[in-house]
Amino acid sequence: MQSDIEIAQAAQPQRIDAIAEKAGIDDKYLEMYGKYKAKVDYNLLRDNEHTPGKLVLVTAINPTPAGEGKTTTTVGLADALAKRGKNVMVALREPSLGPVFGIKGGAAGGGYAQVVPMEDINLHFTGDFHAIGAANNLLAAMLDAHIHNGNQLGIDVRKITWKRVVDMNDRQLRNIVDGLGGKANGVPREDGFDITVASEVMAIFCLATSITDLKERLGRIVVGYTFDDQPVTAHDLHAEGAMAALLKDALKPNLVQTLEGTPAFIHGGPFANIAHGCNSIMATQMALALGDYAITEAGFGADLGAEKFLDIKCRLTGLKPDAVVVVATVRALKNHGGVAKDELNEENLEALEAGLPNLLQHVENITQVFNLPC
Fold this sequence. Notes:
Layout: H1 4-10, H2 16-23, E1 30-32, E2 38-40, H3 43-47, E3 54-60, H4 70-83, E4 88-92, H5 97-101, E5 109-110, E6 113-116, H6 118-122, H7 128-148, E7 155-160, E8 164-166, E9 176-178, E10 189-191, E11 193-195, H8 200-207, H9 211-219, E12 222-226, E13 231-233, H10 240-247, E14 254-258, E15 263-266, H11 281-290, E16 293-297, H12 302-317, E17 323-327, H13 330-336, H14 349-369
Parallel strand pairs: 3-16, 3-17, 4-15, 4-16, 8-11
Antiparallel strand pairs: 1-2, 2-14, 5-6, 6-14, 7-12, 9-10, 12-13, 14-15
Helix pairs in contact: 7-8, 7-10, 9-10, 13-14
């Protein structure tokens, strides 16, 4: 049996301009990143009136080391609907380099239900995460420059809450002391790095509905507190304009395709345990505008990612899923039933039965708490 990467590398994807044409995207909105990737100008939403399609949310039971297959199911469902002649769009999150190079791996699906070019998507892609990291670290640099140059706002360096970011799971940088090297090299203080996808800029990026909205949200970021405990914002440092300038191209959704040639937007990727765990609002709205069906997903289990999707993203945008898919694999259910990871391939009906309440609770949350078809 071929591995995921072997399947992806053996595929012969269509040119992205052909995928864009299939999705109904006019060439004037398309910005090519080689043959198989493109950005779509967000002015497409402003310039064209569309009847929104039906929104399908894919979620899962609680995560296990065995994996639940949300992305694989999302892609497979979209390809199946497309095979039946439906006009379908996919909207997914971008993978972070941290999990890719850690134990979790990539996030482009699996088997024959993948998005391609898989290696690009899992690595640098179109540079969105680099732009988000640069915007985050620009604010950090402006904060420290303000303190270094007289600290007119009276910021207490013991009460700074803003961290720098790097898109890597580098625990060595989580808590550091910087500003060393004498007067010319800043003010010594405790500092630290978060992973880029766990940053507030990433969450803001995915919740923004326009470049103007993005700039306003960036301006409200609290970076620390003054000596008399007053909050200091990015707007106080006059940072939001420059941050938005770094993000103006990243804000355009990325268009790729599944192995079956179904158009897919992959854009933004906040962690669900830190933020709301959904792809960008702009990509979802674009998928709904272009497709009769938009298939999207939310990170972690239904008790985390799906609830954040419904309580945060949907509340902000007025969206409401027309259907919710809860993914549960037999291996994951056996794991919840008490079976160790290295024994999950063995038949164990008793453990499977013991794990079923986990699935049933998630289904109950979706159908009873949120009153949505599951």
